[in-house]
Amino acid sequence: MTAPASPSTPWLLTCRHTFEPTLLAELHHLRLPFTHAAELAPGLLRVGLPANLAVTACNPAYALQILPNAREVFAPSIRALAEPIADALRAQLDAHPGAWDVHALVPGQLKGNPKPPMRRRADLIRDAVLERLRATARWALKRRIADGRQLGILAQFILLDEGQLWFAVTPVQPLLDGATWPATLPAGLANVPDDDVAPASSYRKLVEALACLDVAPRAGDACVDLGACPGGWTRVLLQHDALVTAVDRAPLAPHLMANPRVTFLATDAFAWRPPQPVAWLVSDIIAFPERVGELLAAWLPPRLCERFVVQIKFKGDPDWPAVAAAQAVALAAGYQVLTRHFFNDKNELTLMGKRGD
Ligand SMILES: C[S@@+](CC[C@H](N)C(=O)[O-])C[C@H]1O[C@@H](n2cnc3c(N)ncnc32)[C@H](O)[C@@H]1O
């Protein structure tokens, strides 16, 4: 006897705005059993998925955040909008131990707007959720970790209009290092500080990857930056006090070339290998997508790095066979892998991995 099909419920997914069609195409590519899709706002998709689907079974690379089994609330007041969130959260807190938090989201945030409309109202709704919990489940308040990354339960809501929001309360699942699903960064977006000294804005991609993983090179870690010119990624590694071998045919910005913690090698980044294993391999080389699988096949089976952050770049649509081939190389070599399209990623994906032992 087969189990009855679970009814479809709304799940919300966020992505870098303008990549909504790419996310939708990926959902098709992954053969996820979704029944309908609608764009609720730029960077926000609603799809129908089985209520009992494991959250990690819906982890597309192009999604930055997920609100599984989301519920829509229409209500005229802040208090009335907050009540169902608080009550659903309370029910989950009864069932699950661990820390929790509430993320108050607004659509403008998904477009990277630092002062988005309705921010204040969303914060007041979050405060009202906490107020109701104070009245109904005071014992749970000390388990809240505001802006915490190590969460057992995450309540999220996104305010679409003054009197309309969607919310979900979800047990958080580990993915890789500190990366989780749902993400414990609000809307899956890292805070990437402006860096006027960085020689290229591409530094933002590596900052996002490290924030997603919630782990970074330690002081003195040996790191290799392939395709490093002009040095945005090398600078990020240096900010963690790493020792960087930067490989590119073209030199880095002069201040990075002069840095005693940088060894610059003017050679073919695909052919070069480190004399001994390193802590981090990072690569932002512009090359055909299939070359990423070849690169990982050279580095991972002999375990030349503990962790990696590698960009795979596309011309036109994502090259899913090349992505799958690169992921398969890593998995076969005993690495865990996570693939994401970060807010600052262009037509590319970030493959992150960690040695499994
Ligand atoms: C997008 S840029 C890297 C930007 C860099 N991550 C930063 O933040 O400044 C790509 C680099 O890959 C380099 N590249 C492409 N193919 C290469 C190869 N076979 N060997 C070495 N470098 C290569 C290019 O010279 C270019 O500097």
Percent helix, as a range, is 25-40%
The count of DSSP E runs of length 2 or more, i.e. the number of strands, is 17
Q: What is the fold named in CATH at topology level of the largest domain?
A: VC0802-like
Count of structural domains? 2
Oligomer: single chain
Which architecture of the largest domain does the CATH hierarchy give at level 2?
A: 2-Layer Sandwich
CATH class of the largest domain: Alpha Beta
Q: Strand-and-helix sequence, N→C?
A: EHEEEEHEHHHEEEEHEHEHEEHEHEE
Uncertain regions: pLDDT < 50 for 5+ in a row?
A: none
Q: What compounds sit in this structure?
A: S-adenosylmethionine
Distance between the termini: 40 Å
What's the arrangement of strands in the largest beta sheet? 13-12-11-14-15-17-16
| Class derived from helix and strand content | alpha/beta
The percentage of residues in β strands lies in 25-35%
* Basic shape: globular
Mean pLDDT: 96
Helix count from the secondary structure assignment = 10
Main sheet attributes: strand count, strand direction, barrel closure: 7 strands, mixed
Roughly how many Å is the radius of gyration? 22 Å
